C-alpha cells in the first residue's frame, strides 16, 4: 500500500540538484480535442470501393470466384478505411501535423503513384510505434512513432515501405490466397505458406523503398534507423516474455537481415547521397516534442499503464524539469497500483522483465529481481545508443538509487513535483491515500486552494464526503457496438448501417428494448462522433474500463478515485451508472459464388436483413457497467453465449429480446454483487 507521508521529506533530501527550475504551474497534459468530426473525415464508401476495385488488374478479375473475391476485398477495404478515418481516433483537428506529414509523403512518392489522388496520410491517437497503408492508398501513422524516429528520413523510409506494399498489392494478394485456402492452419502448428508469403512481401517492399528513397533525396539510412528502432522494441518485447525462444523470422525478416540489405544497397550505389530533412527540420523537432504528451495521454487513457510509465520515464531522463512527464509517471504508477495493490512493492519497470536465459530446459525464463538502477540496461530502456549521451538525468545510475519500487518512485516523483510546483500532482498524491483520510484531506485542502487546479469541484466533493450526493440514481444505457453478419456459403459478409439508415434503427432498437425502465435513458454510441466527440471518447474509455479485470485484494476500488474525469462524466450525464451493451447477429445462407450475389448482400442494410425470415440465425450479447453507487460494486458484466434465434421472430425482435434479457440479467447480478461485496 501507499507509504507514509513523512517518507516524502526523507526522499526529497536525496533529490539531485540537477533539477532546479520549475515550469509554469498551469501545465496541461495533452492537446485540447475538437468536439466535432470534420465532414471530410466521413469518407464515401462507394467511391473508395470503386477506386480499389478499378485499380485491381483485370487478370485477377476472372469470371466467377476471383471477381467476387476482388469485389469483396474492395468492399471490406473501403469500409475499413471509412471506419478508421471516421472513428474519432484520428487527429482530425491537428491540420499542421497532417499537412507536414503529407509533404513528406509527396517527397517520397514514386512517379508510378503520382496520379493516385486518394493517397493521403493521417495520424492515429495511439501511443505504440506503428504505421500501415490500406488498399485505398490511405497511410495511417500512430502518434507513438514519433518516439522512435529522429529525422524526416526515417518517416520517409516507413512511408516508402508502406507505399511499396500498396503498389505491389500485397494485401490483395494475401486476401486472394486466403480465399483459396492457402493459409489455413491446424490447431497445433502455424501455416508455413503464410510466413513465407509475408516475409517475401516485406523483402520486396524493403527493396522498392530503398530505391524510392534514393530517388527522393532522403537518406536511405532513414529506413535503416527505423529497423534499428524496431529491433530495440522487439528485444524489449522478448525480454518481457516469460518464455524462452530463439530469434527467428516469422511474418517479417529479422531486423538484422534487413539492415544488412540496406548497408549493401548503400555500398553498391557509388553515387548515393541523401538528406535527413527535405521539408523542415524545425517543424519535425516541434512536432516530435508536441507528440510526447499525446503519446503518454493515449497510453494512460487506454489503461496501458506499464507502457506509460516506461515511456514517461524515458522522456523524463532527457528533460527532468518537465512536469508533464512527472505527472504522467505519478498517475500511471498510481492507477496501476490502485487496480492491483501488489504493484506498490514491485520493482519500478524491471518487475515485468526476464533474464534472457532458459531455466534448465523448462522453456521458462528467470524473472529479473534487480532494480532498474543496479546497472544501465539498454535493452530494458529501449533507447537509441547514440542518444544516451544527451540524457540529462544520468544521476539516477551514478549515485545511491533514489528509489527501487513503484511506491518509492511515486514518493520521489511527488517530491520533485512539489519543487516544480505542479498542482495536479498534489491531487494525484491525495488519491493515492485510500486508507488514510486525514492525510488525503490535508492534500485535498491544499489542492483546492490553488487557483489553477483542474478538478476543484471534484476535490471539494471528495473532501466533503459528498462525492455521490450530486449523482442522481439514474442510468444511461449505451448500445456501444452492434454487428450483423451474413455467411453466404463460405464467405462472411458484414452488413453495415448505411447512411440512409442514419443510425435510427439502432436508436430505436435500444430505446424500444429498455423504454419501460423509468430510471434509464438510452443512446447509440457511434452517433456521438459527429458533434459530441468528447462525450464519445469518455464513454468509449469507460466502456473499455468496464471490461478490464481488477485485482484489488480486498480493497474496494471506486471509479472516481481511478480517474476524476470519470466522476465528471457521471455528473455531466446526470447518472450514477453507465450500462454498455454489445450485440452480434449472425445469419447463414446458401452458397453464392457470383459477384452479383455479393453486391446484392453488401448493398443491403440492417433494416433489410433484420426484417427477413431465415431459419439459420444466431445471437450473442455482452453487457458491462461502470458504477458510482455508494456501497455498491464498481463494475458488473455478463456475457450471453451464442444462441439460435426462434424461427417465429424477425431479427429485430430477437435483438430486442436479447437486450431486454441482458439488462435484466445485469440488474440481478448487480443486486447479488452489492450484497456480497458492497459496503
Features:
679 residues, alpha/beta, 6-stranded mixed sheet, 3-stranded mixed sheet, 25 helices, 48% helix, disordered N terminus
Care to describe what's here?
It is a single chain. This protein has helices at 6-13, 45-54, 65-85, 95-108, 152-167, 170-179, 192-216, 221-240, 255-268, 281-301, 305-318, 323-339, 378-381, 395-398, 406-420, 423-432, 437-448, 456-464, 504-514, 533-546, 559-562, 564-573, 595-602, 606-611, 651-677, and strands at residues 120-124, 131-133, 138-142, 354-358, 365-367, 475-488, 491-495, 520-524, 577-589, 617-627, 635-644. The chain is α/β, with parallel strands linked by helices and 679 residues long. It folds into three domains: 6-23 and 282-464, no CATH class; 39-279, no CATH class; 475-677. Strands 6, 7, 8, 9, 10 and 11 form a six-stranded mixed sheet that branches. A three-stranded mixed sheet has the order 1-3-2. A two-stranded antiparallel ribbon has the order 4-5. A hairpin with a 6-residue loop joins strand 4 and strand 5. The longest helix is centred in the C-terminal third of the chain and has 27 residues, at 651-677. The radius of gyration is 27 Å and the shape is globular. The model is unreliable at 3-27 and 186-190 (pLDDT under 50).
